[in-house]
């Protein structure tokens, strides 16, 4: 059942979409029997669009992000990101796809604790073979206001600063798809607001597509449109 | 491949320290250091012996003769090579007042020593023995002064003459090349030796001619050895160059080093399970980082490469540390114990053994680290989105298991290839692998059994058993590490017990108390009568004795024969020979027939069966010996089985009387005693028969016992290392589970469990694990010790309940102690630490 205030309309993939899901099912096995996480999801996102993904806990929001990132193979259905179909791709090919097109911002930041801020940002660029990885990392950290914290380890940074490093890492690769899973969930309201201001500003500058999973209706309202996930199915409100 | 990037990021990651790597580092460093130190020391001694070859041999080339001096043609050959020194060595009795002792006499000329220098206490010159004085002078080992209660200037008696102690020897450069030493050294001039009357036909004297060559190249010396043997095929002399100055000592060091290396390899292998645990814990701890890297688009091989590089860097640090220790070991040994070491130690760096230790370290590191690192492929980026890790999903990495096996097999192959005794090494490694497999199966089976057993009513017992098989439990690693460590410990402890008992009970009831050597033909009856009159003498036996060496077996020169291990000594150097009309007591005829008492045909010989088998001869084959410069080819008439443990008179080769009785020779006499005054008898016989040499069995056994004791101490040291590695692995395994333990303890305490209850439950768990490890250790260790006793040492195996119980006790104490130490830490964690985080 969907919440009535969001209204109900099924989304159809569009030819110009950057992300496209067609009739996607995700079922995971468990001792108690198969668990149906996503059930016939159709979804698309245009370039530069910001989409808020809301819904109760366990509804399938995070799973939706995972299948789009190619981190969870779907049971059936088709997914394409940046014009590339994820179906039948090997784990290594999916890693390459993420490296080129998808960035993720987590609730718990997930920085490498043994690397400094600049190294955390530069690492994916270097493995991508970018020759200017260091300078781009510096620039991105300066963009998020951490030019003075380049050589600090995650443990030496506040939660807000850590999340800014994570955002710098997400934008550094120039990915056109940013997946954010409750990015302010571990931050206080003031810091959270600042972080979201930053994320939206950078998304605008980069013209990236942002998929933002959140429990905060106010935050969701900042997006171009809102999609609600309930029992593995999607509904949306513009 | 982004190897440079792997390296760069691995280095960056390691800047924050080696936290989490200490078990890996200690296990690897200890194992590799042990191998490096042992290998380096053995090589240093070998090099020291080689570098010091000239002073140790006392020349570039040595020609030695038994019983006789060089013939004119032989002496001419010696002279052609350069200036030489002539030396005679023999054993005799020295007496002073009512005291007597066996001494090792060395008679030298004025050219001696042509390399190195003999030093005496004070400013006395070594040449004092050649000076004219009222009494002939000798210089002696300080030990002799103590035994005979003498001081410099006093007199003692050798043979028939009195001698003055003119100096005390503090250093004798060529001591080691003279072979086994049963008594203190006494040095005199040749003129004095002649006066003692000890030189008689058949006396056991070795004459040595040591040459100083103009060209001191080793190759030139070796060419002389070859020419001597070619030009004088029947001389029966032993010619050796300076590289062979102390072959006995070299062999001893090589064997000791070999056995210690095997123990160190076992320690490294046990450490391997610690490495695997540590890498596994490392992967678990970095699971989030791995998932993050995958979310960032890094491929599996890059993530694997990054972490493998990190492990290899840490390992390299440990290996480097170990190799540095190995490189410094000879210098440290020389600085600390240089003065008391009987062997020369070269302080140069020994690249070979150090490189071998490092290679082995890397192979073991990769072999044991690869499989835990393969878990990286099963960590999914999606894990970051889940509160619970799902990294257990995925197929088992058979490919990586194969890779691990390849590296471990490479390590085994490498050890076999570089070791001196490939067959024994293969057996040892096979036993180690079998122990590993059996113990792993046992641990796995036990944990499965515990999981399906009905749950006990007692809550503490139930909790303890549940802890053993819960996911992430360290029980498997604990049993494996401790079980293997204890197996080796028990093997060594029981071998120790076997040897000790052999030494203690090695003297049979009817064993002789003395061996009297050099009893001349004409004095034999008088000697026997005199001995029989002594109180406590229960039996007197005698046999003729000559010395000779095997020069050919079935027509093949002895040096070209490859004997089986254990029989090689029969072809090496001089052996005692005898002749007998009847089968000697203590022997049993196995094949062939004994010759008639009045046999007068072609020379016949009787051989000990195991030696005959070892050198590949059977009844009817020919064997050639050189006695007193004459070659005798004898047909093997029969084979005997000898009970050497009876310690009666017995020889490997017994000839038909007509073969040897015409040669000048003396007799060996054994004296059995039941009670009586051994020391008194020795003194009285030494005074009455000054040219006869007495070897007291008790003292000879003490020398053997001391030697074995020193060897056992060294092996025990290496074994302690094995146990230490086992404890390290154990501690690492327990520490890896500390976080889980702490969490459980907090939750249980929150719900009302008392500290005492928790400690009891943990003690039961660790007690059961310790007991299983101890049982395995005792059973496997006993099998190992039995194998060693039966097939290597050839001694009756002694099982010691005391050792078994002590092992079980040690295992329990170590496991419960280490376990409780970890548990107490877990119990001391403040609940708020976990509960607030929740």
Number of helices of chain A: 7
| Largest sheet features of chain A | 6 strands, mixed
Task: Give the strand content of chain A.
Answer: 15-25%
Q: Tell me, what's the shape of chain B?
A: elongated
Strand order across the largest sheet of chain B: 2-3-8-5-7-6
The gyration radius over C-alpha positions of chain A equals 18 Å
Low-pLDDT ranges of chain A: 1-15
Query: Which range best describes the helical content of chain B: under 10%, 10-25%, 25-40%, 40-55%, 55-70% or over 70%?
Result: 40-55%
Description:
The complex is a heterodimer of chains A (238) and B (838). By secondary structure, chain A is an alpha/beta fold. Helix content of chain A is 34%, strand content 25%. Chain A is built from seven helices and ten strands. Chain A has helices spanning 61-69, 91-101, 117-128, 133-143, 159-172, 189-206, 217-221, and strands at 19-28, 35-45, 50-54, 76-81, 84-85, 102-105, 177-181, 209-213, 225-230, 233-237. In chain A, the strands form two sheets. A six-stranded mixed β-sheet of chain A has the order 6-7-8-3-9-10, sandwiched between helices. A four-stranded antiparallel β-sheet of chain A has the order 2-1-4-5, covered by helices on one side. In chain A, strand 4 (76-81) and strand 5 form a beta hairpin. In chain A, helix 3 (117-128) packs across helix 4 (133-143), helix 3 (117-128) runs parallel beside helix 5 (159-172) and helix 5 packs parallel to helix 6 (189-206). Chain B has 838 residues and is α+β, with helices and mostly antiparallel strands. In chain B, 53% of the residues lie in helices and 17% in strands. Chain B is built from 24 helices and 21 strands. Chain B has a six-stranded mixed barrel with strand order 2-3-8-5-7-6, surrounded by four helices. Chain B has a six-stranded mixed barrel with strand order 12-14-19-16-18-17. In chain B, strand 17 and strand 18 (630-642) form a beta hairpin. Chain B starts with a helix and ends with a helix. Mean pLDDT of chain B is 83; it is low at 388-392. The interface between A and B is medium-sized, with 35 and 27 residues.
